[in-house]
Write a structure and sequence with these properties.
The chain is α/β, with parallel strands linked by helices and 365 residues long. 39% of the residues lie in helices and 12% in strands. The protein binds flavin mononucleotide. Flavin mononucleotide binds next to loops.
């Protein structure tokens, strides 16, 4: 009998054994040289913790809220297309796993199950991740998300044009599952597929959304708006000026644009630019509880995980997603105790050493 996984990398190794070569590549790959994917990790490793001892840490609280939604820990599930590549229950299983861990899941526009089906299966809060697909399709998606009980719209902004992963090109990979949210539309594949899609799909390029259309988007719904993929103080400024409620700092796991910094390196400048007017979150490369503490010490409110949800799904469906999240919960709690912290919402400053040379948002000593 094999041991239960003891960390996320155990899930990764087992998922790799379970999945086909091409499916593994689809999940694992980054864009081009995969430099940013590696840097997402190395940047976390470059940040170091400053533990504090001899304190009363008997009662530790790692629960928090994101845009008013209560979650049991500051770890959420990032939006990702096609969960069925890893498990037949796809996004339904992910939603159940996230619910078991009492945390929030972001559902991708490119999910295999529809948002209504996922909402039905979910027990925790959901945000709908929006890829703009042109005015009428976007309007249809936003209205349905609001109707189905999603708590926010999370617009992904970092995919202005297609960036097929080179491993997928080599494998001539095709996901092969339907896009559940578009089941009832008769639009051609080129209109409903987007810029994070598989090679060979012809993507209409006339669609990218700009700051000008944000007002239109906000007018479609009373739900709060989160922008996913903002990477600079400059864009964070504009976002806040436009009344955006949340910013998910992300490199898309290094899957879209190579040669950028790791996501965690961008957090300080975005936090500074947001001036407390928008909540800031981060994903890309989060694999350990200590990463979560580091991100929160830099001013993020919560983090999210992408590839690890596929690892959990591939290993054990909903229970696997739950297992991945619970390992992170244990690690977050342990890191809290080692850092002498009892409340995740009130981490004290100076918990991390920030490497010399990090971006303009370096925290004051
Ligand atoms: C297979 C896969 C599909 C993804 N699909 C989407 C998507 O549809 N929409 C989106 O905003 N991000 C998508 N992402 C990016 C994730 O939301 C997230 O930013 C990224 O995976 C975080 O990095 P990590 O994988 O290192 O945790 C996808 C990521 C993966 C691995």
């Amino acid at each position: 009998m094999s041991m239960d996984p003891i960390n996320l990398y155990d899930y990764e190794a087992r998922a790799k054994l379970t999945l086909s070569h091409d499916t593994w590549d689809f999940i694992d790959a980054g864009a081009m040289d995969e430099f940013t994917t590696r840097r997402n990790r190395s940047a976390f490793e470059d940040l170091t913790l400053r533990p504090r001892f001899l304190r009363d840490i008997g009662e530790r609280d790692i629960s928090t809220t994101v845009l008013g939604e209560k979650i049991s820990m500051p770890v959420m599930v990032s939006p990702a297309g096609s969960h069925m590549v890893a498990h037949p229950d796809g996004e339904l299983a992910t939603a159940r796993g996230a619910g078991m861990s009492d945390t929030l899941m972001m559902l991708s526009t490119s999910s295999n199950y529809s948002m209504e089906e996922v909402s039905e299966a979910a027990t925790g809060p959901l945000w709908f991740q929006l890829y703009h697909r042109g005015y009428d399709l976007t309007e249809m998606l936003v209205h349905r998300a609001e109707e189905a009980g999603f708590k926010a719209i999370c617009l992904t902004v970092d995919t202005p044009s297609p960036s097929p992963k080179e491993r997928d090109l080599r494998n001539q990979y095709s996901r092969g599952f339907e896009l559940g949210n578009f089941r009832a539309t008769d639009r051609p594949q080129s209109e409903i597929s987007g810029t994070d899609e598989t090679p060979g799909w012809e993507v209409s390029r006339a669609l990218p959304i700009t700051w000008k259309e944000l007002e239109w988007l906000r007018g479609l719904t009373s739900l709060p708006l989160v922008l996913k993929g903002i990477r600079t103080a400059e864009d964070a400024h504009v976002a806040v000026e436009n009344g955006v409620n949340g910013i998910l700092v992300s490199t898309h796991g290094g899957r879209q644009m190579d040669s950028t910094m790791g996501a965690i390196e961008m957090v300080p400048e975005v936090v500074e630019a947001a001036k407390g007017q928008a909540e800031v979150y981060v994903d890309s490369g989060v694999r350990r509880g200590s990463d979560v503490i580091k991100a929160l010490a830099l001013g993020a409110r919560a983090v999210a995980i992408g590839r690890p949800l596929f690892w959990g799904l591939a290993v054990n469906g909903a229970d696997g997603v739950h297992g991945v999240l619970e390992l992170l919960r244990e690690e977050v709690d342990r890191a809290m105790s080692y850092c002498g912290q009892t409340n995740i919402r009130e981490l004290e400053p100076n918990l991390v050493n920030i490497p010399y040379g990090w971006g303009p948002g370096r925290m004051a000593p």
